[in-house]
Amino acid sequence: MKTVLRIMALVALTFVMISLTDCSNRRNDVDNKEVIADLNKQREKLGTDLKELQKDIDGELSQANRKVEQATGETRTQLENAIRDLRDEKEKVSQSLEELENASEDTWAEVKVETQKTAKDVRARFQKVGNEMASLFDSKED
């Protein structure tokens, strides 16, 4: 009789353990889905920011290409350098976009930091080149 009671107690204990494990797994599934959704939201935002930066660079490149056709001498050389710099920065943004799209959950943290740093650096360089181009034509008008 004692043996039967022990077996029943072990069966009941096993049932309870299995039930608790199943609840824990469901909670982990929900947490993982939330993490993936958050990761995708962050990836989408960074991607949108990078695409806007690319669009801004394209606009500046278009403007510089129109102006370089009419420029001569030192102004033309400076514009050509600015165009080269803008193309280099655009390439960095393209590479960051590609890395962002290919990032896995394991590489996400590193890619996110690198992408944010690249975007910040490119924006700063873009601003500097834009200011240099503006000063070229402001000084020419004086």
TrEMBL record:
Residues 36-106 form a coiled coil. Keywords: Coiled coil. It comes from the Bacteria. This is Uncharacterized protein.
